[in-house]
Q: What sequence folds into this?
């Protein structure tokens, strides 16, 4: 009789451990969900073959953050984007708060250098993407002026 009473506790413990592991995986996968500055990869958007689609990819694609095998899915407000990326070009430190991704002024020079070095397309790079477990923010290269900090809306 005593052995039967232990099973609910074992099942409960397994569920708690699984939920904790899942939460830890999500936090490690996207460090921008945690407070403070974090290193994120910078990629260039290949404008020639990136597209805006009328509807998001299926449930499986949204869960993986992909439109297809080499195209990342990002939601920018009401727009659904399938982004083809060149890179990585390097890393910068960024933080997320109140729906905005912020890059400090001392990191803007690095972003400008990365945009200039991208040779993935014959055209100059117009948009950089911060990747943190998936596309986190789109940064227009034209908006990189001086050493002023950059704050852009976070992607969904």
A:
């Amino acid at each position: 009789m005593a052995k039967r009473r232990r099973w609910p506790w074992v099942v409960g413990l397994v569920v708690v451990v699984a939920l904790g592991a899942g939460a830890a995986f999500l936090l490690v996968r996207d460090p921008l969900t945690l407070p403070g500055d974090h290193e994120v990869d910078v990629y260039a958007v290949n404008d020639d073959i990136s597209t805006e689609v009328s509807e998001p990819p299926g449930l499986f694609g949204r869960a993986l953050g992909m439109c297809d095998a080499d195209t990342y899915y990002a939601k920018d407000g009401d727009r659904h984007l399938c982004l083809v990326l060149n890179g990585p070009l390097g890393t910068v430190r960024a933080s997320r708060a109140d729906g905005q991704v912020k890059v400090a002024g001392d990191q803007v020079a690095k972003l400008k250098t990365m945009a200039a070095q991208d040779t993935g397309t014959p055209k100059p790079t117009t948009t950089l993407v911060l990747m943190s477990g998936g596309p986190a923010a789109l940064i227009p290269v034209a908006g990189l002026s001086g050493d002023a900090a950059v704050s852009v809306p976070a992607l969904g």
About this structure: Strands lie at 38-45, 51-53, 66-68, 71-76, 79-83, 85-97, 100-103, 127-131, 135-140, 150-153. The chain has a mean pLDDT of 81.
